[in-house]
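STRUCTURE REQUEST FORM
Protein name: Exported peptidase / protease
Source organism: Sorangium cellulosum
Requested output: structure tokens
Priority: standard
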Amino acid sequence: MRAPVYALLSLCLAACNVEGYDETSEEIAAANDELIGGQPALETQYPSTVLASGCTAAKVGPRHFLTAAHCVDDLYTATVEPWFGPGGSYAVSADNTPPISPYVNLTIQQTYIHPQWIADCAAARAGGAPDCGVNVLNPGYTPDLALVVVNELSPTIPAAVVDGAAVAVGDPVVATGYGCETPGGAPTNVFKIQNLTASASSILNHPGSYVSGAAINDVAASYVLTPGYAASTSYASLCPGDSGGPLYRQSATDLIVVGVNAYYTFPSAPGSNPSQTNWHTRLDTSARYAVTSWLQALGVSVINGGTAPTCTDGVQNGTETDVDCGGTCSADCANGDTCSVNADCTSQSCVAGVCQPQSSGTACSGLCTGPTVFAGPSYNSGNLGTGARCFETTANLTGANCGSFASGRTFEVNGTAVTCNGSNIPLPAKRNGGYCFEASAGNQAWAYFSTW
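Status: completed
Returned output:
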């Protein structure tokens, strides 16, 4: 992943405790990390935030990850980078300290960049701009937004919701990110958070700022503004690696996203100081560009006010896997509804993301015939050859991987397709008490999978 000048955010955080949390052994251990200051997040804090392909992102739907446009765009062609196209690999992790593990390896269905960014990028390049970075952000104050939609579910990562209500000046918010710890430094992959307060547009009127006059209000119409570490050591600054990270409303119980880390201003030359201000792309219905409706049309969980979704509001949102059921709702989902795990379904049978009637068969019943049965959990298939293969086990597995599958050859676990590039693969819930591994016919003969 490239690291352009405007790539943002690891929190240059002030040394402080997060209000509402007592000091624990985990916090004490985290405090020994080499930090400028600030609060490394606990495992339980803002778990919808993930490290993803060099940037930070937030899960905001069953298969939806919100990040910055400049994390996934081709800097020169006003398009999505090829490796973020359909079929590409998108590895995410909600772990909060390095070495980051485990990653969940997902397959990209489609990556969407906000159309205003694409239009402004194309116009900038046509006008002679060398690239679509600062040359897009500065003149048009374009929404720096992208949405990565994947094929697989990731039930271990809870989904946040996007709030369509505007953030008012003075509202308490929480900045999050996985980026660097010193200006111009490399990302450290430590997940950090900081309580901040949304600021008025006048915060942009400071020595060294490149925003002045009417442009100050233009920026505020597109971005939530927060104070940076250069303004006071009680604040936080964005830094490379934090780009795309979510800005949350402060809440003890709900995961409500109100912005996406995008840009900043400095008291002097970038790289020599932390930022004076931070810019987070606005997601509300009053923003300069149509953002909320764009996200909602793509399947993102959106609420229009400051109240978190409920399990009786008639729409799929929050942790629900279908309308008002699954996730943390007390109501289980009916057969045919979308699910993530068996517990989401009345039937207690979730197959390939859909609730199914209970079956008295085995893991591979209805999926393939004549499976090779192994006791496990430690198993290596060896070379699979070029024909279709089927394997079954009732073992309690903790992980699996697969690799050397040529283009066009598929591999499924309990009916769900996974990407086989040598990395670990997500394991779905057991099906009829076990796991069914299916390889379609095709190249290469030395394709394999293993479990443990």
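Reviewer notes: Residues 1-37 have pLDDT under 50 and may be disordered. The helical segments are 25-31, 115-126, 134-140, 215-222, 292-297.
Form closed.
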